[in-house]
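Here is one chain, start to finish.
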Amino acid sequence: MQQLLLDYKVPFSSSGAEISKDWIGIQCPFCGDDKWHLGYNQKKNLLTCWRCGPKKIFPTLKILLGLPGEQISRIMKKYGCETVEEHKEWQGAASLVMPAEFGPLKRKHREYLESRGFEPDDIISKWGILGTGNSAKGYANRIIIPIYQQGKLVSFHSRDITGEAATPKKACRMEDEVVHFKDTLYGYDRCKSNTVIVSEGPFDVWRWGYGAVCTWGIKFTERQVDLLSTFKNIFIIFDSSDTKTGKEEKQAAEQAEKLADKLAIFQNVWIIDDLGSDPADLKQSRADAIRRRITRLVEGEDKCTQ
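Its structure:
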């Protein structure tokens, strides 16, 4: 693949702190990536974007190279990156064990959470988060966010607490995941009613509390749509204007509409876009007031449909 990218002048990175062994980093053409989030595993011959999920090689190369399909097929064969089954699903690891460097939160992690308006012990108790120190390879000075599916640890994500990391948000290595994080809804196991709030990130979920999930960014996968379709009432609340550029705000609005369109056939779907803030940055009192507003909307909908 490296030679293919070189010959067709596609920018990539094969080394650096954010590129794992046996991986190549490419700018993802599906999510407006300006870094190296699209990873190609040279041993397993698979592609995945750390922001918007697994990809198939053929359509990805077609976009990257700007060539017709018949040429892409010949190129894949020439460079040895053709796949026997393009539609075969990626198979995850059998189990995931957290690295030994991941441990209880220290003062610096607690201070970071407090600066964001969270009570550390509450988040630890409800969400089982961990922390890392200076020496955690690849994940130094981060809050570690375990991801569970049906009670089983399947992946994790992380957030830098220093404000200095080149990649503030970093996922578990794909080869270590039981389920790819973009095919999960963080908080899903904690949803016990037929109503759910959908936001972008885990800090949003912490602010809303149980009954909320996140899609790990504005992009979503079909598996996430399938999981959301198990709810009757869905409230999509992505970050609002003061936390985004004009372009980012437009993309978020477009993705919220796209997600709503996919779900609205059989579910009741609302888009709430008037927060003027990242949900995670709301005062808890306002977040609680919005949840009460959601309850009233649902009750009103239920009365209308009885």
